[in-house]
């Protein structure tokens, strides 16, 4: 499980929700519901980013696992970071070059999963979470779960 401070996630949420458009991820390239009409399909599997209808991409946070585990906004233009191109929020248990801890907590494969901002807002706006300080992500073999804690 990895703890993400809510106070650090709020600027990411606000950025994505207020951005003029959302960025295209691999998920959108392979999802026909996101394609423009008459999109050119490559090898029957995916389209180029220019063929994705960005109006079908909701404001989201991207949960990423690579050398660490972090959230970032999918809003465009990107929210600049101080030490990276994008502003990211690492979980308390991982850092930018903490591959071994990240692998132990999240598994070995890298991923980028979109989490709709509405889902996160629903969690945060639930009255039972009024005093929560962290969103916790629990990784399971085929999925992950969210809950909140107060620290």
Question: How would you describe this structure to a colleague?
Answer:
The structure is a single chain. 23% of the residues lie in helices and 26% in strands. It has four helices and nine strands, in the order E-H-E-H-E-E-E-E-H-E-H-E-E. The strands form three sheets. The protein has a four-stranded antiparallel beta sheet with strand order 6-4-3-7. It has a three-stranded antiparallel beta sheet with strand order 1-8-9. The protein has a two-stranded antiparallel ribbon with strand order 2-5. Strand 3 (60-65) and strand 4 form a beta hairpin. The model has no long low-confidence stretch (mean pLDDT 94).
Task: Summarize this structure briefly.
The chain is α+β, with helices and mostly antiparallel strands and 151 residues long. The chain is built from four helices and nine strands.
Largest sheet: 4 strands, antiparallel
Structural class: alpha+beta
Spatial order of the strands forming the largest sheet: 6-4-3-7
**Would you report the number of β strands?**
9
CA(first)-CA(last) distance: 15 Å
Task: Assign a percent range to the helix content.
Answer: 10-25%
